[in-house]
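Dear colleague,

Thank you for sharing your sequence with our group. We've completed the structure prediction you requested, and as agreed, I am returning the results in plain text so they can be pasted directly into your records. Please verify that the sequence below matches your submission; if there's any discrepancy, let me know and we will rerun it promptly.
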Amino acid sequence: MYFQNGNLTMADSNELASKLKLIKTSNAFCPEPFISTVTTGKTTQPCCLMKNWDFDNSEEKTLAIQKEMLGNGGPLFDYHCLICKEQEKHPAPSHRQKNIEHWLTGKYKEYTGLLCDAIDAPKMHIITYRAPNNFCNLRCHMCKPSNSSSLAAEDKAIGVETAFSAIHSKSLIKLVDSTDYTEALCTIFELRLVGGETLAIKKNYELMQQAIDLGTAKDIELDITTNATLTPKFDGKDIFDFIPHFKSCKMYISIELWGDKNSYIRFPSKWQTIYDNAIRFTNSPRTTVTFACCISSLNVGYFNEMAAGTHQMILDYPGKIYPFISDSLVVGKNLYKIQAVPLIIREQYLDKYYSNTRPNYVQTFGKLCSYLENIEYSEELMWKMLADVKKRDKHRGTCLTSVFPEWKPYYDRV
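Please find the predicted structure tokens below.
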């Protein structure tokens, strides 16, 4: 064991050096399947970004993908790690590469020995908890009905049929997780809570309360992903009553753009509410706020506005607001992929990026420009996406071109 009582030892320096070399240089290795898990209590998967995961054979598949990651990759790596594989075709590090950096020199560097141990004997020191309840109050264009009860209900109302639309709007809200997390809460050093809408799901508060009751919360970093549109009370307590008990807290606020453009994509959110709650979160002890975006066909041209808005908040709240991140990318069968953006619109977006670069976001803008320049355009996908947009606009009483006028020549033809 290289990690004892929080200290990295050199009991076997040659083997340790070999593992560190693997972590640093492999094109397939990712820490997530070895050291963390994503769970609903009923299902598990190695990483929240993995696509097409087989929940019925999760344990077997996890072992198989771990083996591939210790080699040169393989069919499972290619099939499930679509986001990182696409990101690594372009400038700026992928989510996988950033994760490795965190373990070697960043926020997890004190636990590097744990990761080296986990290569031989995987052990879950980080839990991402995704409650089986999929309640969410928003209907984001690029989301899935399995992650949002509101989107599932809208799909059903407008006649969009998916495997989830007919059943998830009500049945998932009623799901209860009865798993005993006592052992896990006594061994992890980080608890990540995601949704649905994380702050609107009671089970997340029960899990935090259990860590407090066990006396382990003080040793756990709390990471919460939220749309920041509400802070409800459960049993008389809201999130601000729980945060002070934990070692630290990172609030990741999911937005797609800055201001009213965000309100359109993440319908029916109100930007001022999100902004005000972000400030409220900064007032909690040992808490920082990071805005997190998923790159899609609708927002890919507007991250200069994200950079400007975030930069001003960093100046206003030093040490509490971090630069925004854009680690997620719409891929797979989703209609809102960058492939749907026409070449003429791409040229407009590229002109904005090349004429308005920001020193703190050179990598991010370079990545966005590469996506726009190199990801193949699909006219068929564009028309499918716009048909979906128009259905939702009619149902919601919104209009794409009032927010993104560059789409008008195409939108008007649907």
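Summary note from our side: The CA atoms of residues 37 and 293 lie 22 Å apart.

Kind regards,
the structure core
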